[in-house]
Amino acid sequence: MIKGTPELIAARREEIINACARLYQTMSFKEITLKEIGAETSCSRPTIYNYFQTKEEIFLALYEREYALWNADLEALLAEHETLSRQSLAELLARTLEKREQLLKLLAMNNYDVEANSRPELLVSFKRAYGKSLENVDRILRKFCPEMDEARRLSFRLVFFPFMFGIYPYAAVTEKQRAAMEEAGVDFRCCSIYELCLACLRGLLG
After folding, report:
1. At 6, is the pLDDT very low, low, confident or very high (cuts 50, 70, 90)?
2. Predicted structure pTM score
């Protein structure tokens, strides 16, 4: 049982997630440890175990928060517009993901290990946030593309959501990767997150 007021518990949990997010800006998933995360917080390592039993659970909570932030943007898009052209819809959806670089970076890593090493109740909470994003995208398509039937909306989601897993690696090319592709003679053009999303969405929306 975690001791403290609900506000204190929520604040400490958020502090731990924030520490993980900061470290993930400059370190890889493999490099980050509970010790590293603890050093970035006011919590002792035993205290962290009261909230998260593994490093993967902290990353899962970060995932969940990123999906919640994306959901807020998707819901704002729904609320702020009555009609949108296909082009405008593609542009606005691409902008929502341009803001979620952290989410896209998380999607690019091994999700199987994160989910496998997290408690079921935390995984269910994460899946709710993920499921909400599927629902919100479907609501957007139903509102702004009413001619799309259920099968076409499903087809859209089955292409776009897996596509999201590859956006970050394609947009965040390191100098080492760039040099290797140049030496290998690979004709590669680095695109921004927005450009990649827009190209995909234009193709899916027609």
Report:
1. confident
2. 0.92
